[in-house]
Amino acid sequence: MTQPDLIELLRAECNKTSQADVARKLGYSPSAINQVLKGTYPAPQKLLVKVEEVFCKEASIPCPVQGNITLARCVSNRNLPFITVNPARVQLWTACRACEGK
Q1: Predicted structure pTM score
Q2: How far apart are CA 85 and CA 69, in angstroms?
């Protein structure tokens, strides 16, 4: 998704609940969310990635190891620890470290 799309998604999520609730889900302060929505603070890339991870769980992305997977599964794969006894996990861990979606 593009930056304006993600900011609109952020705005829509805030309208559903509250900026404080959305900020808690994203791990940011409510004031940071407010400033991004007002346009007084440019949205950091990390925030936009987090918005996509949390609120676009159905989005499908290409994984070089597992094919097309949901963004939620991608995030889960990225957070798996490195395990040398499973060749598939080693391949996945290597691919996740090189992925542009980080």
Answers
A1: 0.63
A2: 24
Specify the CATH number for the domain of residue 13.
1.10.260
Mean pLDDT of 36-49: 91
DSSP-assigned letters across all residues of the chain:
--HHHHHHHHHHHHHHS-HHHHHHHHTS-HHHHHHHHHTSSPPPHHHHHHHHHHH-TT-EEEETTTEEEEHHHHHHHHTSPP-TT-HHHHHHHHHHHH-TT-
For 69-97, what is each residue's pLDDT tens digit?
A: 887 788 788 888 888 999 988 999 999 88
Do 32 and 19 share a structural domain? yes
Whether 67 and 90 map to the same domain: the answer is yes
